[in-house]
Structure formats: structure tokens, C-alpha cells
Amino acid sequence: MSRNHQRGTHKAKSRTSLTLIGAGFLATAAAATTVNLASAGESAHPVGKADHAVFVQGNELDGNSIHVFKRGDDGKLTAAGEYATGGKGGDQIDAPTDSLASQGSLVYDDRSGMLLAVNAGSGTVTSFRAQGQKLTDRRVVDSGGEFPSSVAVSGDIAYVMNAGGEGSVQGFRITKQGLTPLRGSYRSLGLDNEDVPLFSSSPGEVEFTPDGRNLVVTTKSNNTVEVLPMKHNGLPAVAEPVVNKSAGGVPFAVTFDKAGRVLVAEAEKSTVSTYKVRRDGTLKVVQEPLANGQETLCWLERAGDFFFGGNTGNATVTGYRMDKRGRLALTNDVGVATPPSADSQGVIDLAVTADDSFVYVQNAVSGTVDGFRVGKNGALTKVTTATGLPAFAESGMEGIAAV
């Protein structure tokens, strides 16, 4: 599932499961750097069966990189290269398994054929042109704030969420030359973080509603789901976000159902709440928080009529089904879509293929990515495991996209 509709070495790490509290600038483009031979003027390469890929962000502190895998028709992954982003990875303070504590830090945009990656440690964003398993035409721009950790795309507009300092969103136009800062798009989130934020006080994700009319941001410790109604020119229609109190504790990831309703994963009690976005940016709760019985639900992605959530506290994946009335329910009584594995620890971010057939899950502690086939009943069957990725220690991989 493409997101076009629609993501310092300063301390010892806590290995305990997540514990959370209750819940201007104009970016300037850095010099463009060419990675391979493709020119900036090339059109996006159509994706055929031979071109399927899964991209994993290494988030290495000394030099961020994208690890590329060829995806077979059976869902199996084969290593196909590694590309430096030209920036540095980041590591939030006291993050237990997920260094960026966000969803959407690596995004593939099928409209432009670009892959967008945050460089949290250097305050920049990298764009690549993705051609099958090859990444070319690397370009790096300033993110417009401190510690960029999430990206959202709608049409030819991208917004970057910066988690450090006061927190912010900064808009860019997607061009053949990469990302160009969008004048007048910067909006503060009014947070009070250090430049490298505490993981529990950083915002969780930025995402566009499917119609592109609203930009949605979650904040963890403030316990809010904030909305920026958007103009047709890609600029926010309001001076500051419309603040909505979260129905559940510690809102983290955002996704949408087929009707455009917002589903928010909440880490405090591993719940999902469903909202309708009103024209003025306020949210109407249409389904109260649904608990999954697992520990620390943070990530959530849609695959057709199903949704899958990553529970980092006990390294499980939960399946959800939405009925014709728009009611969300677990796919089974125990809230686990696939049996947990001792070799797949530290479940974090997820990616779903465009045809909704496969789900890929990052295991931060194990340094692996598991691939699953989605069954007709929402059950997941493992088909592949990619190994040798940067495992969580001082920092670790975070961010995954599937094509």
C-alpha cells in the first residue's frame, strides 16, 4: 500500500517495554548529489513484477543507508544493494527498541517514483529516484527543523514532521529535482523538547487524509491528534493545528479505512480509535478505543479490509478486520495474526504491498525483516526472513517501504 494516498550517541538504552507518561523557517536545499547514472529529468520507471522491492532504512548514526531487497512474486526477499542517504541516522532519548519512535520515516511515492528518507541525526531529508531495486539521483534538503522522523505525501506535496525542539511540520513540493521547500508551509507543534527528543514526548506520525484536504499529526505525551486543514496550493489553511484530545492514551501511528476515516494506534493500552475528520479539523469519535490484549501497540497499516499493528512490548502483530458498517474488530480472539517467534524480537514498523498481498515487519532487536502472506481471513503466513540488518543497540533500523 503506497503512502501516496495516504510514511547522538548520548545514553545507555533501556531494554524494558515501553513506559510512557500520560498520555520563520524556510528550508534551504542542500547541494544535489548523484548516486548513479540516472538524470533528474527521467520519468518514473513503471513497476513491473520483476521490479518489486522492499526498502529498509538502516538509520545508522555514522551514516544513514537504505537497504534494498528484491521481492519475488512469492514474497521472498533477496538482498539487492545498499545506498547511502548522505545524512546521519538518529536515536531518541531512552527509546526502548525504536530509535525514531515514529511511523512513516521511509516513504515510497508511486506518483513520482521517489523514495523519501529522513536523516534524523543531521536534520535533513533524502530523496531517491527508485527504479526497481535501483536507487538513483540522490538529493538532500534541510528538513526545516530538528530531528525529522516522519514524512507524508499527497499529490506533488510532501510534509516532513520534525520531532525535536518545539516540533514542527514543513512542506515541500516534489519536483524532478527532488524536494523544494514550500514557502509559508512551516507550522509549529508547540512542544518543548530538546533537539534530540525524549521518545515519549516526540510526535508519532504525520499523514495526509486520503483526499489530501487535511494533514494529521499525533503527539504522545500531549495526548493529542492534531489536524491542519489544507489549501489547494499545499499550504495549511490555519495558522496552527486544530488540537483534538486523543480518545486513547499515547496516540502514535495513523492510517485510514476505505471511507477515509482516521484510525489511530494508541500505545498506552494497545488500543485503536476511529475518527471522522470534520471540515474544520475537529475529530468525531466513531469507535471508542479497541484493545488488542497485547503490549505497546505503536504501528498500524491497512491491507485492503484488514489492518495490522506492531506491538513492540511483546513482539507480536495484531490483525484487525473492518466490516461493511465501518466497525473494527480483531481477526481472532487472542489479537495475534501470526505466532510470535523467538527470532523476531522488537517488532516495530510495517509495510504493506500495493496489492495488499504481503506485510513486511521490522524486528529491531533481531535485526531482521519478516515477510507474511495475507490470508483471506486476515491470518499471516510467514514466507521470508531477511537478516543482517542494523539491530537495535545504541541505535537501530527504522523505516520500511514496499513496492
Describe the structure.
It is a single chain. The chain is mainly β and 403 residues long. The protein has a single domain (49-402), classed as YVTN repeat-like/Quinoprotein amine dehydrogenase (Methylamine Dehydrogenase, Chain H, 7 Propeller). Helices cover 0% and strands 43% of the residues. It has strands spanning 53-57, 65-71, 77-84, 106-109, 114-119, 124-131, 134-142, 148-154, 157-162, 168-175, 178-181, 187-188, 203-208, 214-219, 224-229, 242-245, 251-256, 262-266, 271-277, 283-291, 297-303, 306-311, 316-322, 328-330, 347-352, 358-363, 368-374, 380-386, 400-402. The strands form seven sheets. Strands 8, 9, 10, 11 and 12 form a five-stranded antiparallel sheet that branches. A four-stranded antiparallel sheet has the order 3-2-1-29, with no helix packed on it. Strands 4-5-6-7 form a four-stranded antiparallel sheet, with no helix packed on it. The model is unreliable at 1-46 (pLDDT under 50).
In short:
The protein has 403 residues and is mainly β. 0% of the residues lie in helices and 43% in strands. The protein starts with 52 loop residues before the first strand and ends with a strand.
